[in-house]
Amino acid sequence: MFKVFDERQLAHAPALEMHNGGWTAHNETPSRAELLRERLGPLAPARDFGRGPLARVHTAEYLDFLEQAHARWLAAGREGDAVGYTWPVVRRRPLALDRIDAQLGRFSYDAGTPITAQTWEAAYWAAQTALTALQPLLDGSERAAFALCRPPGHHAGADYLGGYCYLNNAAIAARAARDGGIARVAVLDVDYHHGNGTQDIFWEDGSVFFASIHGDPRTEYPFYWGHADERGEGPGQGATLNLPLPRGTTAAPYLAALDQALAAIDAFDPGLLVVSFGADTWEQDPISHFKLATEDYPVLARRIAALGRPTLIVMEGGYAVGALGDNVAGFLAGF
Ligand code: OKP
Ligand code: ZN
Fold first, then answer.
1. Is there an atom of ligand 1 within 6 Å of 159 CB?
2. Domain containing 123 — which CATH number?
3. Is 26 a domain residue?
4. Which atom of ligand 1 lies nearest, measured to the CA of 19?
5. What span is annotated as the signal peptide, if there is one (predicted)?
6. Does 297 map to a domain?
7. Integer Rg of the chain from CA
8. 150 lines ligand 1 (CB under 6 A)
9. Domain count for the chain
10. Residue 37's CB: how many other CB atoms inside 10 A?
11. Which domain holds residue 151?
């Protein structure tokens, strides 16, 4: 399997996140990727496809904001990581607000996703990592590829960051595949958390099917997306499938939901499958509540591989660093 990792992703290391009413050490650490790099090597470095493919998913004003936010934060006399504290509920009306705090609210939806001096560089190379891993699938020289991305991407929308995510790596790769001539692309999101950014990006796009299995947003982050009645709109009507599962879900009901998602994807007949893979479905993940065991990951992967589609696996979450190596290696082995 072709595997890609780029060192420039490592410098992003936000100090704190807002968690259940207090500031705690950030869970999305460089060590997550460092240990996977040691475990999964050899890994190819990313090629640079430039800003063009990022701008096919994200708005120009959002990309400019993300690139400049931390410098503007420092210019405002602040220290440390940039984070917002006021959000425009339901967006209000478009206002050209000039203060960094207003822009942080405008372009984000939570306080768990600080912008550091290195965030743009790391997020940029995470997106390039996904694009690089996509290439051998486009030219047919590989059937499966793995993009070791961090920061993750599936919570980031066209013009917002959140959930530790800044650029939507999986969506950028899916859009690049469409632009590269693949008529139908499916994204299967098996991170514990609903991939709200990916869903929003393809909400009205009937050429990209989005299926997600995740903790029920009635009790789980990100709360405001991922409910079973969200099916897409307009040309995208029916091309979104949400399968929320309760806290405590074990392998048997999880695999039943997976079979349902895979049947829907198979019926859509995609020329490429993008898997947003989070290992935070593991039973001892520190911020999640499913009960998958390490030995379940190869089983999951074999069912996905049995679809027989060219498959790009994009790393999303997974925060139990002691077990991350076994869980990710087991998943990849299933392919
Ligand atoms: C990112 B990914 C803990 C509360 C929830 C956001 C979780 C983001 C998960 N601070 N914080 O989907 O693994
Ligand atoms: Zn997650």
1. no
2. 3.40.800.20
3. yes
4. 10
5. none
6. yes
7. 18
8. no
9. 1
10. 17
11. 2-58+118-333
